[in-house]
Amino acid sequence: MKEVQKQKQIALEEGARVASLGSQSSSFQGSPDPPVNNVDAADGTDGADGVDGVARPSSTGPENREIRRTRRNRKKLSNISGDSGGLNNIGDSCYMNAVFQCLFSIPSFVEEVKGKGKELEEGGAGSPLLRAFLQLESMRESIPNEDKVQVLTSLRSTMNFDTGRQEDAHEFLTTFTDRLTYEYTSLPNSNDPAPNASSIPPPADDLASPTNDTSATSATTPALQPSASTSTNSPKPHPFVFPTDNCFEASVDEKLCCNSKQCGWIRSRKDPYKNFSTSVKSNLDSGLANFFNPEVLEIDCQRCSGKEAIQSRKLSNAPRVLLLHLKRFKQDGTKIQDGVAFQETIDLSKYFDENDENDKSARYKLKAVINHTGTFQKGHYITHGSNQNGKWFEYDDCSVLSKTLKDVTNKKRHKTAYIFAYELVEGPDSDVENGGGNEGDKGDGDSGDEGIVDKKGGSEDTEGGEAYEGKVSSLSEMGFELEQIKLALKNHNNNFELALNELTS
């Protein structure tokens, strides 16, 4: 807040009108370290809202402020070598900027969206949201300016998020990707109706509800219909597949089985997930495991007198881009501040159905992390994202700083990590040959496999070996002490996942 007050004083000395500076943007109140240049190019205020909650450009004295802002931005971007620039905060819009910088850090998604945009342009079709997103992406490398302000304002208004208050980044991400899909599949040249693009999967109660029950009921628990067929809610193929589906969508087989030994009826369905919301556990792997672990639900079975059913989930098709969201906010608005350890790579192979005859693998590499500091009422979002050369940057509205992977996965970031974007590097839809991977994927040990054999046929998962040192390096990058790491690995026979659980418990 001292930095904000200092910038206000500078604006006063330059003769700027400061009537709008009375209200402070909640975007920065929860941030322990506000960006150096958080005075917006639009109006010279720290995200101050106008009458309708949208920041308004200043009409007086812009020349000196613009020169000062430009110099600061150039200084910030001097070590980026033409990479991405920052985005203006147009008033409590850090959540939106964080989401866009996250999406910009996923090259496969950006390239596919560009391709769809070119198709629409050649065909004369229109998608306002897609056009605005591509316009913003085309200005990535420029410093924050009024052109960016106009596009950001248009995007927020089109999304109906111009409420004048802080919003949730996860809600904006899911709404934005759904709206992109809906606009594209609703174009006149589409012969089929637009599919249901909701990326929020149905809760367990909905999953167990009878498919033929259309009446409202006051029952506290749903009934388990005796049916072995797949639900009619399964996704249907659509001739116009948009990148939000092609990149983010996973397919999960969900089953409900009556827990009564005399019954055993099963209901199954295949559901699309565009992102996975996991509980806040000590590490990201544990949160994912909790999502896929069988769960006992209180459900009335209509075939027998059973009161319980077991819900199980298995991965059917892995997404090209894995979006993971931590459920940090409770219903009452309080925030779970517990640290969640995460690493550069993650493996979903163990969540496929073990009875599947096809040998499936799904190994991912971290591309971006959205962090949230502060509380639900007063918080701030930033994004750490990597480019195609593997360089990492911190995007904090207008501010852009060069970072390292160690900075991103450091222990101090565990309490603020909120949304993760991982890109497939080994799997049926990846650009890397099975068994390949790339630099930085070695030795993470996230699958917990022991006794990894090197090309010479010897075990390298012992102290001093390449796999062992890779695990030590990964845990060290998370902020743990070397002695603690070695002791934890020793206690668990070099099992990475178990060692990580010990270190974070």
Report on the architecture of this protein.
With 505 residues, this protein is α+β, with helices and mostly antiparallel strands. Among the domains are: 2-185, no CATH class; 200-211 and 219-237 and 250-318, no CATH class; 442-505, no CATH class. The chain has helices spanning 2-13, 26-29, 62-77, 94-104, 107-123, 128-138, 146-158, 169-185, 204-208, 243-248, 284-292, 405-409, 466-477, 482-491, 496-504, and strands at 223-224, 250-258, 266-273, 276-278, 295-298, 300-301, 308-317, 321-326, 345-347, 363-374, 379-386, 392-396, 399-403, 417-426. Strand 11 (379-386) and strand 12 (392-396) form a beta hairpin.
Features:
alpha+beta, 8-stranded mixed β-sheet, disordered N terminus
Report the uncertain regions: 1-83, 190-239, 432-460
**Beta-strand percent range:** 15-25%
- The average pLDDT score comes to 70
Proportion of helical residues: 25-40%
Which overall shape is indicated by the principal axes computed on the Cα atoms?
globular
Q: Structural class, from secondary structure content?
A: alpha+beta
Number of helices: 15
Rg (C-alpha, Å) = 25 Å
Total beta strands: 14
Report the end-to-end length measured between terminal Cα atoms.
34 Å
Domain USP: 85-425
Region (Disordered): 1-83, 184-237, 429-472
GO biological process, one term: protein deubiquitination
Biased composition (Polar residues): 209-235
